[in-house]
Every structure is written in C-alpha cells, then in structure tokens.
Design brief:
It is a single chain. This protein is of the alpha+beta class. The protein is about 40% helix and about 20% strand. It contains four helices and four strands. A hairpin with a 2-residue loop joins strand 1 and strand 2 (about 35-40). Helix 2 packs across helix 4 (about 105-125) and helix 3 (about 80-90) runs parallel beside helix 4. It is globular and about 40 Å long. The chain starts with 14 loop residues before the first helix and ends with a helix.
Length: about 120
C-alpha cells in the first residue's frame, strides 16, 4: 500500500537547505512546471526527501490564485510520491515552481505535467 501523506518531516522549510538548493541544485522544466533538484552526494549529504512549492507573485498578484496553485502542486506530489522518488531518488531536496501566468483549469492538467516531468527525469538518468 502506498503512503499518500505529506508529513511535516518532508516539507522543505529551512533557509539553509533552500539556499543550498539554489546554489548547487539542477533545474529541469516541462511545460509550465520547473523543478530544482539536489540529490544526496558525498560532498552534500541529504538526510531524507524534502519538497516545497513556490508560485511567483509576478504572475499571480492575488494570494488566492497563488495558494490554489500551491495546493494543486502539493497534491500532485502527495499522490505521485512514489513516481517522484523513483525518478529523483530517495534522498533529495526539491522545489517545484509554476512558471506561467495561466491558472490551471483542472487538477488533471497539473498532474499530467508533473508525471511527464518525472518520466522525463527517469529517461535522463
């Protein structure tokens, strides 16, 4: 049985981890999604998978719209966590961005792009 939770331990919140992610992470894009990934390496140890989402204020002025997209992105991660870990690894820091000024119509659209992003990463390995 798969674990469909998104516990506090998996949330990327520390400023030190976020700055490390931006300094040494790798970017990957697919459609309206962009992700920055930092995998566990001997030089950069990562204890466990941590995930965060971000939506730009430049594209969405209203907090209601930003929060809706963040909820959709978190839900995609939560439901497809096994696919994410298979594509990006067990010990990974990641932050997912929505890089379009369009508000997604349906959850299925966002989920489809998330799955394509994970599958393209699996092929690239």
């Amino acid at each position: 049985m798969t674990n469909f939770t998104y516990p506090r331990a998996e949330k990327l919140k520390k400023n030190t981890e976020i700055s490390l992610l931006f300094e040494k992470g790798k970017w990957k894009s697919n459609g309206n999604l962009r992700i920055i990934i930092l995998r566990d390496k001997p030089a950069i140890p990562v204890e466990s998978t941590k995930f965060a989402v971000s939506v730009s204020k430049r594209y969405f002025k209203k907090a209601v719209h930003r929060n809706r997209i963040k909820r959709l992105l978190r839900e995609c991660y939560r439901l497809n966590k096994d696919l994410f870990k298979e594509a990006f690894g067990e010990k990974t820091l990641a932050m997912l961005f929505w890089v379009s000024s369009e508000i997604p119509e349906k959850f299925q659209d966002v989920e489809e792009q998330f799955i394509k992003l994970c599958q393209s990463m699996k092929k690239g390995i």
